[in-house]
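Anyone? Bumping this.
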Amino acid sequence: MQNPTFEIKAMRASYGAKEVLKGIDINILSNSVTAIIGPSGCGKSTFIRSLNRINDLIPNFHASGDILYRGEDIYSGDVDVVDLRRRIGMVFQKPNPFPKSIYDNIAYVLRVHGFDMREMIDEIVEKSLRKAALWDEVKDNLKQNALTLSGGQQQRLCIARTLAIEPEVLLFDEPCSALDPISTAKVEELIHQLKQNYTIVIVTHNMQQAARVSDHSAFFLMGELIEFGKTQDIFTKPVDARTEAYITGRFG
Amino acid sequence: MKRHLDQELAGLKEELLKMGILVENAIFESIKALKGLDKEIAVKAINDDRIIDDMENKIDEKCIDLLALQQPMAVDLRFITMSMKISTDLERIADLAIDIARRVLELTGKPLLKPLIDIPKLTDLAKQMTKDAINAFVNQDPDLAGKVILLDREADRLRDIIQKELMEDFIAKDPSATPRAVPLLLIARHLERICDHATNIAEDVIYMVKADVVKHHPEKLK
Amino acid sequence: MNRKSRNKRLDKGFSILGIASIAFGLIVLLVLIIDVFLDGSARLSWSFFTSFPSRKPELAGILSAWVGTVWIMAITALIALPLGIGAGIYLEEYAGKNRLTDFIEINIANLAGVPSVIYGLLGLGLFVRYFNLDRSILAGGLTLALLILPVIILSTREALRAVPFSIREASYASGATRWQTVRYQVIPAAFGSIMTGVILAMSRAVGETAPLITIGALTYIAFLPQGLSDPFTVLPIQIFNWVSRPQKGFFANAAAGIIVLLGLTLIMNAAAILLRHHYQKKIRW
C-alpha cells in the first residue's frame, strides 16, 4: 500500500451557516489520480478547494476535522499557507492566465518564489511548457499575450504555470469544463503522464472523464462520501445503489 | 496525438495473441495425442485448459473495464467488442481440442478401426484456419480473414466424407464397431466445429478492420 | 394581433421619445458652445494667455488664472491620488467584510454626493483658519483634494472589483502573498480604470469654483504665485469675476476663458477615454 498523501478524517466544511461537507473520511494516495465525482452541490469543489486552502479567500468559509497533508494538519495555526499553496498546485475550472505574455505568466510565479536569474527563468519556462505539451505551439510567440491563446492552450499554460514551481500535488477543479473535446483529450493525456511524478486530485462533473483519467474514484452526494474505491470497480460494479444510480444516469 | 488508450489496446492485443498461441498449442497437443493414441499427452492437454479459461476471464474483464472507463468509439469500439467475441471463440476452440483429447482417452487401448486418412486432412485444415484467423487478427488483415472464411466449406466437406465413411462402411456393416467408430465421428465433428470458430474469428476481424458485416452474408466476400 | 400592433407602436413611440430627448440635450449644448465661441473666439490669442488681468478688458489675460489652476491641480493630485487610491486598495483588497467597513463604505459613497460648497466651508474652517494656512495654494489644493477623495476611492474600488476573482485565485494558488497578488496582478490589471477614474475626478476639480471662493481665493491677482503659501486664483474664478463686470469687453474675456476651460476638461476627458480604450484593448477577459 502506498503512503497516503492526504489523510482526511471527519472533515466538515461550511459557508456561514450552510454546511456543505458533513464528515468526510478519505485517504488520497501518492502518485495516482483520484477523481471526485458527484452531482452539482455535492461538495466536491469545496472539498478540493479546501486541500490547498484556496477557499480561505471566500468570506465565511470554515473547515474542520483532520485534514492531514503528509501527516501535517493544514488547518492548524502554524501552517504557512503561502508555502502550502506552492507545494499543492491548482488548476481551475475556467482557464485563468494572467493578462500578460505567455512567458510572464510563468515567470511571475517564479519571481514570486524568489527566482530572479534570467537564464534560470528561461530554462524553467521552457521546461514547464514542454511538460504541459504546449511548447511546440507557443515557442515562437512567448511574448504574445496569453489571453490570445485558445481555451485549451490557456488551460495548458495554467498547468505549465502550476508545474513551474514544482509542486508535490496537483489539484484540478473541473479543468476541462470550458474546453472542446480535442483540448479535453489533450489535457487528459497530460494528466496520464503527470501522474508518474505527482499526486493528482481531479474534480469533474463528467463521469466519463473520471473513468478515463483516474485510478481511484470517490462519489460525493450532498456533502457525504458515498463510495470510494478503484475506478474500474466504481464504474463496473459499484457497491452502493446511489453510486450505481448516479453513474448510470438514473439519478433522481 | 499520443493516446493513453493506444497503450491499453496494444496490451489487450498482446493478451489475445498469447491466448491464441496457447490455443494453437492445445490443438497441436490434442492432435499429437490422437496420432500416437498417447494417454499422457491427452491428460496433460486436458489439464492445461485451465490456463486458457483464466485468460478468457481476464480478457473479458479487461474489455469491460476499457468499455466502461475509456468509452471507446468507432475503430476502438469495434476492436474491444470483437476482442471479447474472439476470446470466447478461442476458448471454445480450446475446449474442442480438449474434447478431442477426451475422445483419445476413449480410443486408447483398442486398435484403431482404420488408418486415419481424412481426419489428418481435416486436422491440418483446422490447425491452418485457426492459425490464419489469429494471424489475421494480429496483423489486422481482412484478406487473410476472407481466405479463412472460404475454407470453411472444405471443412464441412471433409467432415461429411468422414461421417459417411464411418457410418456406411463400419457402423452399418458391423454394429459392434460402433464404440470404436463413435469417438472418431465425434472427433471429425469437433474438428469441424474448430473450423467454424476460426471462421467466426475471421468474420470478427473483417468487421473490426472494415466495419463490414460478412457474418451470414457470404456473398460479400466475392 | 391587436396587442402585437399596439406593442409595435409603443416600441416606436419610445424610440422617438428617446431621440427627442437626446436631440434636446445636444441642441442646447451646441447652442451654448456656438454662443460662447461667437462671443469669445476673437479674444483668444497668445497675449490672452500671457497677460495678467487688467482694468482694461482688451489688455486683460488669464496668466495668473491658468498658472493658479496648474498649481492647484498639482497639489490636489499629489494629495488625493495616493490617499484615494491607497484607501480604495485597502478597502477592496485588505479590509475584512464587517460592520465597520460597511459603515465606512456607506459614508464614502455619501461624501461623494456632498455639495462642493460644504467642502469649501470645511476647508475654510480647517485649513484656512485652524491650520492657519490662509487663502493659500496649499489650502485650496487640500480643499479640492478632500472634495475628490471620495470619488477617487469609489472609482478605484470599482476598478479593482472589475478585475476577475479568477486572477486573484490564480495568483494565490501559485503561492503568492496578498501584497504580491495586489501589486503585480490586481493593480496592473485595474490600472487603466483607476487612472480613468482619477482623471475624471481631476476634471471635476478643474471646474470647481464654489469651494475655492468659499475659502476666499482672490479674484484679482496680478502676479504669479511663487510657493505653496502664496494666494492664488483659478480659471473658473477668473471667469466668474469677468462675468460679473458690467463692461462688454470683459464679457468677451469671460467667453474666451470658458473656451479655454471647456478645452481643458475636454482634453482630460478624452485622455480618460483613450486610456480606458487602450487598456481594454490590451486586456480582454
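Late reply, but here is one note on the structure posted above: The first helix of chain C runs from residue 2 to 40.
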